[in-house]
Fold each of these.
Amino acid sequence: MIRIDLHAHSTASDGTLSPAELMAAAATAGLDVVAITDHDTTAGWAAASAARPPGLSLVRGAELSCRWHGAEPPISLHLLAYLFDPAYPSLVSELARVRAAREVRAERIVSLLRADGVDLTWDEVLGYAAGGTVGRPHIAQALTRAGLVGSTSEAFAPEWLGRRYRVPKAELDVFDALRLVRDAGGVAVFAHPRATRRGRIVADDLIVSLAREGLFGLEGDHTDHSPAERAHVRALAESLGLAVTGSSDFHGTHKSVTLGAETTTPGVYERLVAAASGVTPVLR
Ligand code: AMP
Ligand code: FE
Ligand code: FE
Ligand code: ZN
């Protein structure tokens, strides 16, 4: 049986395994294909490619922070982008802008926490991010170290990063992001589109519009989706001619999900690879 996991994070963003460790872990998990999809960056691609063991195919990707302005207030969402040209200028500059804004935002969250007497520093948080895309899980790590929460997920409770100390981050307009990914030869999949437990979700109308603009698929099998949510995604995808992927969204010890916990079928994977025309094919 071929096992394909198209969504995993490394220390290039908020995962806890380095790109090289992620490749080793993917092989140990018995995966045939793994995608590296760090938030708003391709910084892990080179190290992952260099460390890829024989027999493991590597799909290079990223998870883009996006926003839909069709709701009030706008809704944040994630677009998985695969096999795009990592040097495509406007995509490179947009990702750099989003990453820089993430630092300003995380530093603001740290200031708000410090103003309330929480014992953490910006240097500590930057240290946890270790040069990768900074995210709330790195602040969660400081809250855990300070003994204020027991885990990363506890740090996302409303009294912490989930609401009280939540500061919005800069995001790409989802239609702009989709166009950039496609112009860069990539393929776009809407990540965990029905994950109600993460917050507000977009209306199906948006997915209809994105399908018209060239969206490739929907991530249906994801641990944040209930069986009913998975069924909804599958039916919607079918009606729009979109592919359905399944992936773990592995984050190392920041989450409890394991690599390969959800998988994508070989048929969908082959269509995805065939749809990509970026200068960077999958490595096998
Ligand atoms: P940010 O991108 O900085 O807004 O942080 C969001 C990231 O935090 C997501 O990509 C997840 O990796 C993580 N995250 C969000 N909600 C939770 C949660 N309830 N438990 C653990 N990690 C979470
Ligand atoms: Fe994450
Ligand atoms: Fe995501
Ligand atoms: Zn993710």
Amino acid sequence: MKYHIVTYGCQMNLHESEKIAGVLKEAGYTEEAPLEEADIIVFNTCCIRENAENHAFGNIGALKKLKREKKGLLIAVGGCMVQEAGKAAVLKQKFPFIDILFGTHELADLRSLIERKRAQRKTVISVREARAETEDGITPVRTSYPNAWVNIMYGCNNFCSYCIVPYVRGRERSRRAEDVLREVEGLVKEGYREITLLGQNVNSYNSDGKGGMSFPELLDRCASVEGKFRLRFMTSHPKDFSEELVAVMKKHKKICKHLHLPVQAGSNRILSLMNRRYTREKYLDELALLRREIPDCEVTTDLIVSFPTETEEEFGETLSLVREADFSSAFTFIYSPRTGTKAAEMEGRIDAAVSKDRITRLIALVNEKTREKSAAYIGKTIEILCEDYDEKKGMYLGRDEYGRMGYFRSERDRIGEFVDLTVTDANGISLYGVCAD
Ligand code: SAH
Ligand code: SF4
Ligand code: F3S
């Protein structure tokens, strides 16, 4: 029996799809296959913005015919969208052919849900509000060698006013540090070369006291694991940024000199309405501290334009912040109202045409910065961890510790190797180069 998983959303979801694959293997599905050949198709959904939802709606809807024609095909839909208030019912009504709807706390139960579905005609729905345990006992089927994701915590307590994550992922729950460490050690022994510690807000690790140590301490311990590997972590919240974190990053060569520190907006009024709990000045002070201690550290960020009531002048403050902060790249989003969040109730929605204009200007500025920084790499040699082969380009690719993509040709398989790449050309965030064979 074969499976196919379609994933939307963040790294958290990508890793959870690896866990879903692990559960499916236990349930007797032996291999991954293209959609048309699969005996079970699982959608792991995201609801962070409206377009993420529309995407999933479109793809699930497109399966109606296949489901009718292929006897025994199971369709399961899980992930954050199913966890939204009332959404499971909407999905069931819109797509009666869905066999199983399961929430974000039900990954380990998927096997029993499949069994339940085999015994009944009705759609099986299982969505829990919360989950206290942090160990799921699942052995994930990892698909991103030489990179591996490790959850250090689940959920989020921050309630940024635009964000749906705290509603669909529940409150913060930290894994015990010893469980995290054991997993990291195991992965390094297995030959994984890059470990990314995952949490919605890793700096508040242990807010529930369950971890047993602070995030900087955990990072220190993980970076002390023997072996040649890189360590990354995502995501940091500026309100919990600390000197201790910078000190640990400085102490270990294994920790990538890259910080993803979402700022969202440049205006203090908007930051306050977003409930981000820091100011533009505090954010810039944090970057100054980071760069004083680790001068070549690269910073990336997330930015939202057109939060309700954002004026042209306030948007201009986001542009000026991008200039001042010297980001090496940024993810840019148009604000998307999410039912149930505070911001969705606010007046002063920004007109779509204005939003389009703002995001276009922001992207142009971000790209200009990225290009400038990439061009400065030409002639330099960087160490990249080769992670894939691009069939179209006929080139291997990997990232340097700053997160920049480097492409090169090679006669032999280089995946999993650290490669010294002499950069000859740059295009956006991508670098092209040659390596000694
Ligand atoms: N926990 C992480 C990631 C959250 S989701 C963090 O706090 O940084 C990733 C990004 O999506 C956010 O940083 C934010 O920029 C964006 N985002 C979240 N909700 C959004 C919404 N309703 N509209 C537009 N962008 C949103
Ligand atoms: Fe959402 Fe804010 Fe939590 Fe990030 S920190 S997941 S943006 S509520
Ligand atoms: Fe991630 Fe989307 Fe859920 S960004 S946590 S998959 S809402």
